Amino acid sequence: MDRMVDARGMACPRPVLMVKEALESLDEGTITVLVDNVASRENVKRFAQRMGCAVEVEEKDGIFVLRVVKGYTCQLPRVEMEEGDGPVILVTSDKLGEEEELGRLLMKGFLSTLKEASRRPSKLLFMNTGVFLTAEGSPVLEVLRELETQGVEIYSCGTCLDYFRLKDKLAVGQITNMYDTVENLTGASLVVRV
Question: Domain 88-193 maps to which CATH number in 3.20.20.140, 1.10.3370.10, 3.40.50.300, 3.40.1260.10?
Fold first, then answer.
């Protein structure tokens, strides 16, 4: 069975939710998804792959066409953290606390210390002004890149990057959407907000 999902012009996380709904209603077959921006393309692709589906992407006249193929092995994920997985850390500011200079110094120290922690986080989720830390010019880019090479997944809110006009300046990690953020937070055994 083939289905069409037209998510052009839809804001995050609507394209992912539309694809989720289509996958849930389909035992096997192909879903053709239309999106009109890179963030939606990547979010839908990552979501479908996490579902175990094969994904092909092509661009036609500024529109991304994703063919999501669902077979008998594609199942909706159970988001659980295995014992021993690190916590999910939600970073909602580019500083710790209210005082500007001290707050930025503390945030740099916090993220640098994560590299040495006995239990590293599994994911770092950056939202609101926290996305400035993952963009070009951030004083903690090298720290975040090192954490990423150590297996820490780094995600920045696409809506936040758009709001601050930083999407083209993302320098580490991936762009995410609210659906993935909610799944990561609610599926974690431990969430730390800084």
Answer: 3.40.1260.10
